[in-house]
Amino acid sequence: MIKNVIVTDINGNVTGTTYPKRAKGLIKSGRAVEVDEQTIRLVASVYTDAFSDDMEDYTMADIIEFKARGFKLVEDCSSNKGTRLIVTENDESVECFEIGEGGAMTKISRKVDVEKDKDYVFRFAVRSDFVKGNAESLVSIYFDDESDGYTYPLDREDKNRFKPVICKKTSDGLLRVFELPFNSGDATSATILISVHDMTAWLYPAKEKAAYDSLEDIDYDQWRQEEFHQVEKVLGDIGGTIGDTINGIGGFVGGVGDKIGKAMAELWTKATTDDKDEEKADEDATETAEEKAEAAEPEKAAAEEKSGIVINGPEENKE
What we know:
Layout: E1 5-8, E2 14-18, H1 20-29, E3 32-36, E4 39-42, H2 55-60, E5 62-65, E6 72-73, E7 82-89, E8 92-99, E9 106-113, E10 119-128, E11 136-142, E12 149-155, E13 166-170, E14 173-183, E15 189-197, E16 201-204, E17 216-217, H3 220-295, H4 297-307
């Protein structure tokens, strides 16, 4: 069988070719519409630039879109923190699943029906703010058990991560669109498990590529570095403010200390002055007594001579 049916995206751009049987299957499943006998147009566009080597197979894959209502918190994860939200973006109401609030380990999952040996793409958008060095987020897609499937690291400290098809910087952090390819093998159902640890993430349905064109492109590692530098700057500013406050308190305490020291010095000076005044008064009194005694010496000598008795001296001539 020859791949002679042309496949276009929703804008009419040719993305590849496929087999007639495959084309009929896409039309029947609602993934494409017939343009003419030799052309079909995909209803949902898929970004092929991330998988250019396998562009056709990737383009032909059925897309599983993220829907917040389809996911539930995993019961065996006791630290779960997650909420389904309806938020407004560009005047539109959008479903969102906030997971890992406050950095708690959180897991959500959804089970979907799949056809055997078929290619699928799980497509979603995720927004995250500052990501710590040890933060981690993963998507696992497994079948009969968790060991039979795939794991896609989205956030982790090293560079072993799955690359998003869109990575944009926004005023609220980082916005990425992921398209995770997988093959169902012999399974008829698949479980999609999303987990985050030590970070908070907001999951949305992905929009068409053109909807993100106005946002600034940025590399994931570059964004992480910018966020780390920003946090360092904020902490530095806070530290400087605290330092200034402490210095201000120190200056106030130092001023009070100066005043206390000055008062103590004044008291010491006064006490010292009072002691000197008392010493001087004692000296003056002693000098006055000595002067009076010296002035009385002539009279004392005359009296002794007249009586023959020495006053205040040894007794002489008592007979």
